[in-house]
Amino acid sequence: MSLNKIFNKFTHRNQEDNETQKNGVMLVAFAEPKHVVAEQFRTVRTNIEFAGAALDQCEVIMFTSSTVSEGKSTVSANVAVTWAQAGKKVLLIDADLRRPTVHATFRTLNLEGVTTVLTGKTKPSDVAEKTFVDNLDIITSGPVPPNPSELLNSKRMANLLEWSRTNYDIVVLDAPPVLAVSDVQVLVPKTDGVVVVTNMGKTLKGDLKRTVEVLKLAKAKILGSVERVRASKGDRGYGYGYGYGYGYQSNDVR
Question: How confident is the model at residue 229 (pLDDT cuts 50, 70, 90)?
Answer without folding.
Answer: confident
